[in-house]
Design a protein that fits this description.
Length: about 425
């Protein structure tokens, strides 16, 4: 128990409190047994005696008796609390008996020992001890509850601040503006269902003027998923110099398998687009991206393999797809297709295709805004329950060859196994 140092201010506070407590008791007993105002001072002095003696008895119990009892019993929790309350009840009773004895031996002149007086005294002693202890512990419980609520509020505020900072860091790890060249235009957006999420996207400039891009989705939500997403994104960033997507994904999987927590995994789609329109892609368990041709055709890119992380020996395939100017590739996480309305009906791929159809002429950034608007309109006021991520890549047509940065990695031909 915390012991505050004794000083003049505290002594004065004890004096005022104990004197103040004697006033209502003096009035009460004077109304019950006295003879009006002329006996009021006598009952006030009697109440003052009881107040100070009981306070002294409780102080002795708190300072010396109770600590020894608790150490000897080694009780904890509720049992220790019951023992504490019992000790203070006994201390208050002892203080009342001492006060009554002093009163009987002084002003009472030994006339307060009749059975009726003693029975009345004991009844009031038990009643007021119970009321006093009830009031004391009610105040203590209220104070403890208030302190706990305040501590929880402060902890929640600190956690929210930390999550906001983590969200800012996570957003800083992802591209914050479209990537536009003469041959490509790419834009992405990630909206976490909480402050931070488990989705990510990125794009990379590769030798030979190629564009590498990835969209990933980590199982789970919140901080654990966000940490894993940052790790997966970092692993991709360190392995994209190899222009073969299947080989890159295999390396990412091996590295992730060595570091991942059991039961966690990630899905990802990684592709490399060359200036001549050759797209080589590998899908590691992610939603198949939609390749929308300028002629209205739709193709799903599904070749790849298992999700990343669980299996060290997983192998991955890749497919090569020639693009024509105006072809658009839509990568999305399951937060888009699984967004539900009030009737628990999912947005689904069909609705996604319907909203993409008339909007394919839009620039990638505008197209993303259009799709997100359709998803929000479909979901109405229902809270978002999964991270939503979109990445749009448009092939503008073959540009003049870009200067090579180092050696040029030849594009893969056909569907191969990584």
């Amino acid at each position: 128990m915390t012991r505050r140092p004794m000083n003049a201010k505290r002594i004065l506070g004890i004096f005022v409190r104990q004197t103040g407590m004697a006033v209502p008791f003096g009035v009460f007993f004077n109304l019950l047994f006295g003879e009006g105002f002329k006996t009021l001072p006598d009952y006030f002095l009697v109440s003052l005696l009881f107040s100070y003696v009981i306070a002294a008895s409780i102080w002795v119990n708190r300072k010396w008796v109770l600590p020894r009892i608790l150490r000897a019993s080694r009780f904890e929790g509720r049992r220790a609390l019951i023992l504490e309350i019992g000790s203070f009840a006994l201390a208050a009773t002892v203080g009342s008996i001492v006060s009554f004895t002093i009163l009987n031996l002084t002003v009472g002149h030994g006339q307060l020992t009749t059975g009726k007086v003693i029975a009345t005294f004991l009844a009031f002693t038990l009643l007021f001890s119970a009321l006093f202890l009830g009031w004391v512990y009610a105040m203590r419980f209220h104070r403890n509850y208030t302190e706990r609520i305040r501590a929880e509020a402060e902890a929640n505020a600190k956690e929210e601040q930390e999550l906001r900072i983590a969200g800012e860091i996570q957003r800083a790890l992802q591209p914050d503006h479209p990537h536009v060249t003469r041959a490509f235009a790419a834009a992405g957006a990630a909206i976490a269902c909480r402050t931070i999420g488990g989705d990510f996207f990125d794009y990379f400039d590769l030798p030979g003027g190629k564009l590498g891009f990835v969209l990933g989705d980590v199982a789970g939500k919140g901080p654990p998923a966000a940490l894993l997403a940052a790790m997966v994104q970092g692993i991709f960033t360190s392995h994209v110099e190899d222009g073969r997507p299947a080989r890159t994904v295999e390396r990412v999987n091996r590295v992730l398998h060595q570091r991942i927590v059991e039961g966690r995994f990630a899905t990802a789609f990684y592709a490399v687009l060359a200036p001549d329109g050759t797209l080589v892609s590998c899908n590691a368990g992610n939603n198949p991206p939609l390749l929308l041709g300028r002629d209205g055709s739709v193709r799903r890119l599904e070749v790849g393999g298992l999700p990343l992380g669980p299996f060290d020996d997983a192998t991955y395939g890749e497919e090569e797809t020639p693009l024509r100017a105006g072809d658009t590739l839509i990568l999305y996480s399951d937060g888009v297709s699984d967004a539900a309305d009030r009737n628990d009906e999912a947005f689904g791929e069909e609705r996604l295709l319907r909203c993409l159809g008339p909007a394919c002429a839009m620039e990638p950034e505008q197209l993303i805004g259009h799709v997100l608007g359709e998803v929000r309109s479909f979901s109405a006021d229902r809270p978002q329950f999964d991270d939503i991520t979109l990445l749009v890549v448009r092939y503008a047509g073959e540009a003049e060859p870009a200067p090579s940065a180092g050696s040029v990695i030849p594009a893969a031909s056909g569907s191969v196994s990584g």
